[in-house]
Amino acid sequence: MRITDVAAAAGVSAITVSRALNTPELLSKITLRRVRAAVERLGYVPNLTAGALSSRRSRLVVAIVPTIGSPMYAETLQAFTTALSQAGYHVLLGLGGFDARDEEQLITALLGRQPDGLLLVGAVHSPGARRRLSQAGIPILEIWGDVTAQAEMQVGFSHAGVGEAVANHLCDRGYRSFGVVSSDDLRALERFEGFRRTLDIRGCEFVAQCLVAPPSTILEGRRAFASIHGGLPTGAAVFCSSDLLAAGLLIEASLRGVRVPRDLAICGFGNLEIGRAMEPALTTVSVDGAEMGQLAARCMVDRLAGNKLPRRISVPVDIVQRGTT
Hints:
The chain is α/β, with parallel strands linked by helices. The protein has 13 helices and twelve strands.
């Protein structure tokens, strides 16, 4: 099967078919539908390797995320992938974990696939990874991290700022003793530090903490409650780095006869469905992961189209007050 066969079936030129496969944004929707219908009807599979060699474009964007176990990353990735697909790009997923050395090795391996662009979670990477990224010569987009001037394209928010906002919110509601249950990863720890720093400023008491290995789970939240419960006075509030950990605390508290929020207040992060389904429902921090994915895709497509202007977009975060506080 050749490209000329598709052209004949669609009633267009071979060049138009090539454009439909490689630069669909240049064609009208009607023409694009005709070509794609012919491709589907004939079962044509284009030689993408040959096209990449001739055009220096692979139509491939690599997305490296720590895990797909977190609904937050999954939501962002789904929105990003859908938007890139509509623009004629395919997304290759890589799971980098939470270890900088593993991420560096994966970046090196996937850059060898000659992608047109690369999406990463966070703004902190190993020196070796940074060197490879700077030499890649392709658009690099960072999400879910702080928006700074260190990278040309970022879509994210201040994690330390989230911690500060939660501390102020809980202090304003009258809580004076606090604990933290946090995943031991960079972004969660930034929220932890912002939270604790603000408590010091407000003159509040920090009494207990528990760090758990990522990724966060409900079971780890239950275990964390068991480890810090003895150090929490009645009426304390605990900030968790994810709704999954917070749900685990709430379950374990209920099993032990601890009344939430009368005896213990709990705040999560992520605004996940499980938090809304708990009783009482979890107070949490809401970040629109789908919007982040859509904005990231818009930045990437814009850069791939030749726009060289830096893009740094801060997405809004909100504290959702519910029954656990």
